[in-house]
Amino acid sequence: MSRSNWKRIVVKVGSALIAPNRQGCSSHYLLSIAQFIVRCRAQGIQVVLVSSGSVAAGAHIFPEQSKKDIAVKKAMAAAGQTEMMATWDKLFDFPSAQILLTHADLRDRERYVSIRDTTFSLLEHGVLPIINENDTVTTDKLKVGDNDNLSAMVAACADADALIICSDVDGLYDKNPHKHDDAKLLSWVDNINADIYAMAGGAAEDGVGTGGMKTKIEAAEKAVSHGIDTFIINGFTELSFNLLLDGKNPGTHFQAHEKPMKENIHWMTHTSNAQGEVVINEDFTDSLDDNVDALTSKEIIDVKGEFSVGDTILVRREDGTKLAKAKSNYSSCLLNFIANQDNQEFASEFEEKTGPIISEQHIAVLENK
Ligand SMILES: Nc1ncnc2c1ncn2[C@@H]1O[C@H](COP(=O)(O)OP(=O)(O)O)[C@@H](O)[C@H]1O
Ligand SMILES: N[C@@H](CCC(=O)OP(=O)(O)O)C(=O)O
């Protein structure tokens, strides 16, 4: 999509830009980002901000403490979050709103829709949503874990046209530029494959960031499959933002897919978590693409985990290959019951009355099948 057609964008700001010298928040780098947001809004582009930096901003309140201690890290996040919000708020003459999320919120369809509605409502009223992970309440099971992936989930949730990831490097290089002097910047990526992932390293050991380039590529993969053009740019320099506004590419541009996934299929593939698994017969594999309604308990070899009607499940082949994610119309309990019926007639009649196990509008067939 051309820059002049952008209606809504998500801007993700990394920790190094918020608290560059670990002495609390600094508006030094945020000024040009804020100006960019103001200029976008003046052009009628709605902006959602995903801001990292609560841990980095709060670290100075806990001197001598290591963020490796999870409780201390959460305390840093809780204290740093207010400082970070206050710093952003000072830079705008319009209201902003804080939204703190976990993966548990985004993978729950009702909460996801609620987040979406609230975001749209804020944008319609001219409020700038500022989103971060709710680090204080997260556990390994509940968290997204990095704000790159979070920003992509938010971009999909908000139907954004572009995701702009502001980092501390110019974009994706063919190898880590902090370790290799001859690293070359990739300005354009139209196919995110294993070679692209192989170029990406993690965050610097002694740095404030989380995930490094790997999570940015994961984010780009999520976003482009929803038709969202994604840029990784250097947020330290004002030039990046001026170039973006001039329709140029200041960093790495990951091209949006021309045929994006439907919203519910994208959510199922990239945001929701499978609550359980259904292992199916090898012979049915091909029918998943175009005739999933025909999947019956006869094709089911095993049902794993506990899930309720409406939960997302993973469909696997016996050899372990992941075939699809889908919304189950049956609970695990019921599915186990009919799949283990000796009386096939009873199972068939029951399924006929109850309807398909998976409906064709609620299946995301996985590409690497
Ligand atoms: N191929 C690569 N290209 C660019 N940066 C890379 C690459 N591999 C690893 N990195 C690291 O990723 C860092 C950016 O990620 P991160 O520290 O998580 O920042 P942020 O806070 O912006 O999310 C860079 O500073 C660099 O150290
Ligand atoms: N939620 C964390 C941010 C985690 C994170 O992904 O940081 P970064 O790699 O700097 O975007 C915080 O506010 O400190």
List keywords for this structure.
single chain, 369 residues, alpha/beta, Carbamate kinase, Archaeosine Trna-guanine Transglycosylase, Chain: A, domain 4, 2 domains, 8-stranded mixed sheet, 5-stranded mixed sheet, 14 helices, 36% helix, binds adenosine-5'-diphosphate, binds the ligand N[C@@H](CCC(=O)OP(=O)(O)O)C(=O)O, ATP-binding, proline biosynthesis, glutamate 5-kinase activity
Structure description:
This protein has helices at residues 15-18, 30-42, 54-58, 70-90, 103-106, 109-124, 147-157, 194-199, 212-224, 238-245, 263-270, 287-290, 332-339, 344-354; strands at residues 8-13, 46-51, 96-101, 128-133, 162-167, 188-189, 229-234, 252-254, 276-280, 300-305, 312-317, 322-327, 363-365. The protein has an 8-stranded mixed β-sheet with strand order 3-4-2-1-5-7-8-6, with helices on both faces. A 5-stranded mixed β-sheet has the order 10-9-11-12-13, sandwiched between helices. It has 2 domains: 3-266, Acetylglutamate kinase-like (Carbamate kinase); 274-365, Archaeosine Trna-guanine Transglycosylase, Chain: A, domain 4 (Roll), CATH 2.30.130. The model has no long low-confidence stretch (mean pLDDT 93). The two termini are 30 Å apart. It contains 14 helices and 13 strands. With 369 residues, the chain is an alpha/beta fold. Adenosine-5'-diphosphate binds at residues 14-16, 52, 167-169, 172-173, 175-178, 199-201, 203-204, 207, 209-213.
